[in-house]
Amino acid sequence: MGPAIKDEAEKNNTLGGDAASGELFDSLRMELRRGCLVLAVLAQLHEEHYGYTLRKSLAEAGLEIEESTLYPLLRRLETQGLLTSEWREEEKRNKRFYRLSARGERVFGLLLAEWNGINDSVNKIVQKER
Amino acid sequence: MELLKRYLQAVGEHLPARGREDTLAELRANLEAEMEAREEELDRALTEAEVAAVLEAHGMPVLVASRYGSQHFLIGPTLFPMYWYTLKRSFPLLVLAYAVVQLVSIILGSGSGADMGQRIGAAVGHFPAVALTFWSIVTLGFAIFEYGQGRFFPKLTLPKWSVRDLAPLQREEKKKHPFASGVADLIVSILAIAWLLAVPDHPYLIIGPGARILHDVPFALTPEWHVFYWQIIGLLVAMLPLKAAMLLPSLRRARGWMQLAVNALGILIMVVMVQVRTFFVAGSGISAESLHSLDGINAGITLGFKIGLAVAAVKFAWDLWKEISAEQHRGADYATVL
User: Are residues B319 and B264 in the same domain?
Assistant: First the structure.
């Protein structure tokens, strides 16, 4: 989550009401982020990364993600055939590098189109709110 | 780095054996990279407290390990509504079947029925275990089905359905005739009171011509019945104006509360019946065996009324809570309109 979004969320939590609505917001936020994370990870893995550098690059782009969420997600995406991985030595340490597979490329293209469609629709719908 | 090793060891304890070493090696590489990046930032080696902070931020070992596993369902979201529906629909049938079996067993049971009260109590006490066994079997059946589909047989596909096949609007039907059912209830109540008032002078009204049999049995109603009898009649009569008032359209809003008052009077009748304790007393020339049977019958009837009272009290509390909630909603709606 980008700092701006996080700040807004914290402001809502403290100013917007009780602990229950804060919990509800957290749960809805998690739900909202779950699908976006997969898309962001696939997008970022057009270039090869190992777990830690991928997390850093996502954070630099404004999308912070916990290690304990990201690393298992990489495993799962690899099991689903969307990523390929290989162990390689870098800076005297063995690291597992991931990148998008051919199947991952195709699925990413479809997901991106879907994301853009949803994004456009939601933007149109919430325009009145702005 | 001892803390890191200990952390990885703890995570490894909860990982499946297959792929464990690979997962731990990757986790180690990522954590070491993170610590090195931190050291570069600080331009010094991390203290033990800082290493601990990195590991603690990564998460509790058991939770971290669980995220590497695939998601498991005992009963998945597709099957769960059917599982729940099966439980809801079959539970009343279970209660009915159990009650019938126990009743037949008590009636046909050996002995003279002297310990009928005890046997009824034992049957009621045994029911939770039966219900638990039933729930376990249904749950196990669905869990096996969940596990097997896709592995041993094709996945469940929902049958085709049509909105035209759905059941008719029962509630709407009921709502159409509240007045008719209210009138019928009032008439039946009046007839029931008339019947109760007539029975003492006309005992054949209890079981018709079979009332003669009562003359031959070696026991009779307890004399205390005269007191309880009039208490019950009084309570039944007290229900009549409430039931009549419920028919008035002008009191429609208070119908729920009046129904609660009627139910409360019904509970009072149960309280009276529980207080009776001895329903039948021995007549002259009763044998020792029949006297023993009589004790059992009295105990059984008392227990039956106690159970009935407990159920009625719980139902009353539930109805009261619903009525209070409905009243609050009505109040809120009224405030909104204003």
Answer: yes
Q: Does B187 touch chain A (CB under 8 A)?
A: no
* Tokens encoding A102: 């051919």
Helix, strand, or coil (residue B281): strand
**In the predicted structure, residue A97 carries a pLDDT above the cut 80:** yes
Segment holding A35, helix H or strand E: helix A19-44
pLDDT at res. B305: 83
CA distances in angstroms from B210 to B193, B221, B294, listed in the order given: 22, 16, 20
Nearest by CB to residue A94, choosing from B29, B58, B68, is B29
Predicted pLDDT of residue A22 = 81
User: Is the minimum CB–CB distance between B14 and chain A shorter than 8 Å?
Assistant: no
Nearest in space to B263 (alpha carbons), one of B310, B309, B316, B307: B316
pLDDT in tens, B86-141: 888 888 888 888 888 887 776 666 555 556 667 777 888 888 998 999 999 999 99
Q: What is the average pLDDT score of chain B?
A: 80
Contact call for A75 and B32, based on CB within 8 A: no
Q: Which ranges constitute the DSSP H helices of chain B?
A: 2-13, 20-42, 48-58, 61-68, 80-108, 116-148, 170-176, 178-198, 204-207, 211-216, 225-245, 255-276, 288-337
Mean of pLDDT values over A33-46: 92
Residues B150 and B209 in one domain: no
Angstroms from A98 CA to nearest CA on chain B: 11
- CATH for A3-129 (1.10.10.10, 3.30.420.10, 2.40.160.10, 3.30.460.10): 1.10.10.10
Using the Cβ of B253 and the Cβ atoms of chain A, whether some distance falls under 8 Å is answered with no
A-chain residues near B16 (CB < 8 A):
none
pLDDT confidence of residue A107: 95
Q: How many CB atoms lie within 10 A of CB B218?
A: 15
Mean pLDDT of B67-72: 76
In this predicted model, what pLDDT tens digit does every residue of B298-310 receive, in sequence order? 788 888 888 888 8
CB contacts under 8 A, B 45-74 vs A, are: 57-59, 63-64, 67-68
Give Dmax over CA atoms of chain B in angstroms.
107
pLDDT in tens, B263-276: 898 888 888 888 87
Q: Are B33 and A66 an interchain contact pair (Cβ–Cβ within 8 Å)?
A: no
Q: Which domain holds residue B214?
A: 175-337
Place B164 in a pLDDT band, splitting at 50, 70 and 90. confident
A72 contacts in chain B (CB < 8 Å): 67-68
Select the residue from A68, A79, A83, A97 to test the B interface by mutation, using most B Cβ atoms within 10 A.
Answer: A68
